[in-house]
């Protein structure tokens, strides 16, 4: 009788450990799924890191916070490359035309400079909902980045064209 009681007790003691490990694994998996779902992502993003027509930059940040569209959504704004894997065929970006596809007014700033590591911030431009604007770097400069902010709950810019 004691031998039966010990084997049952031993199995009962091991079972909570298995449940605990399974619970931790399930929690970790759910956390990972929730994190992936909650992170912002660009539905038009094909994995190509260069800016192109149709790319979108969205921000749900508060009005006092800026979103850098060059590091999320728009990709690399310095060059226009007809073929992503052929850097020798790239030319400098001279203009990016964007459309405010969101419901509220947005404010966009161009970050530009003569070379990598040297950056200047241009004046802030106001773009009303539904309107399009051409953004350019300074004379002879590289166009590094765009920043986006606005008062509304959701700010959205869509690239119309890149030259």
Break the fold down into its secondary structure elements and pairings.
Blueprint: H1 2-38, E1 56-59, E2 67-68, E3 79-80, E4 91-92, E5 96-100, E6 106-115, E7 118-121, E8 125-127, E9 132-135, E10 142-150, E11 155-162
Antiparallel strand pairs: 1-11, 2-10, 3-4, 5-9, 5-11, 6-7, 6-8, 6-10
Arithmetic mean pLDDT: 77
- Kindly report the oligomeric state of this protein: single chain
Distance between the ends: 86 Å
Given helix and strand content, the structural type is alpha+beta
Radius of gyration: 25 Å
Helix content: 10-25%
The dominant shape is: globular
**Main sheet properties:** 5 strands, antiparallel
Alpha plus pi helix count = 1
List unreliable stretches of 5+ residues.
32-47
Q: What fraction of the residues are assigned to beta strands by DSSP?
A: 25-35%
Total beta strands: 11
Order of helices and strands: HEEEEEEEEEEE
Describe the overall structure.
It is a single chain. A hairpin with a 2-residue loop joins strand 6 (106-115) and strand 7 (118-121). Mean pLDDT is 77; it is low at 32-47. The protein has one helix at 2-38, and strands at residues 56-59, 67-68, 79-80, 91-92, 96-100, 106-115, 118-121, 125-127, 132-135, 142-150, 155-162. The protein starts with a helix and ends with a strand. It is globular, with a radius of gyration of 25 Å. With 163 residues, the chain is α+β, with helices and mostly antiparallel strands. Strands 2, 6, 7, 8 and 10 form a 5-stranded antiparallel β-sheet that branches. Strands 1-11-5-9 form a 4-stranded antiparallel β-sheet, with no helix packed on it. 23% of the residues lie in helices and 33% in strands.
